């Protein structure tokens, strides 16, 4: 075999040789040929350069990908922690807000019982406030909340005096007296009825509501 014939063999072997996949005998053969053939030597140099270049680029790509992935993971972790904190905060807020509201209503009830009055009490949402058929009063329609006993989950209505308000009639919010016009549809309230409950057209009329306590945190 002359040098020229060896060229093709060496060219075929060069990629493996660069990757150190060739055996010692082959290595010697290639190295001998490279030292004698500037043509193959040039090919070898170019090939080595390109291979190194590709490896480096690939490595960089892999590192870049993992960095990107790591950043995404970091953002995801931060988002998760934030969501958990917001959820925890909201739950804590509502727990204390509801607790305060019900403690306030319970205290008012306690004070009334201490005065010898025993109202029928339940929690409700205001559904409608309208003009009453009675002069100087407004009609309030409420829906009993699920936390009440079974007798207090229906719709009820009652009349509230606007003129000549009796001393024993109160509308309260956080222990303070408030005006009737501060009652709004959608508010949760505690109702204290001292009178009878009368069935009328699927609604139950409360004949003597003397106190309404707003349970919501804000008016
Ligand atoms: Zn050659």
Q: Identify every distinct bound molecule in the structure, by name, code or SMILES.
A: zinc ion
Helix content: 40-55%
Main sheet characteristics: 9 strands, mixed
- Total discrete domains: 2
| CA-atom Rg in angstroms | 43 Å
Q: What is the name of the CATH topology of the largest domain?
A: OB fold (Dihydrolipoamide Acetyltransferase, E2P)
What sort of overall outline do the alpha carbons produce when their principal axes are compared?
rod-shaped
Strand content: 15-25%
Distance between the termini: 103 Å
Derived from helix and strand composition plus strand pairing, the structural class reads: alpha+beta
Q: Helix count, per DSSP?
A: 3
Q: What is the N-to-C order of secondary-structure elements (H for helix, E for strand)?
A: HHHEEEEEEEEE
Structure description:
The protein folds into two domains: 1-88; 119-214, OB fold (Dihydrolipoamide Acetyltransferase, E2P) (Beta Barrel). The chain is built from three helices and nine strands, in the order H-H-H-E-E-E-E-E-E-E-E-E. The protein has 219 residues and is an alpha+beta fold. The radius of gyration is 43 Å and the shape is rod-shaped. Helix 1 crosses helix 2, helix 1 runs parallel beside helix 3 (38-114) and helix 2 (24-36) packs across helix 3 (38-114). The longest helix is centred in the middle third of the chain and has 77 residues, at 38-114. It binds zinc ion.
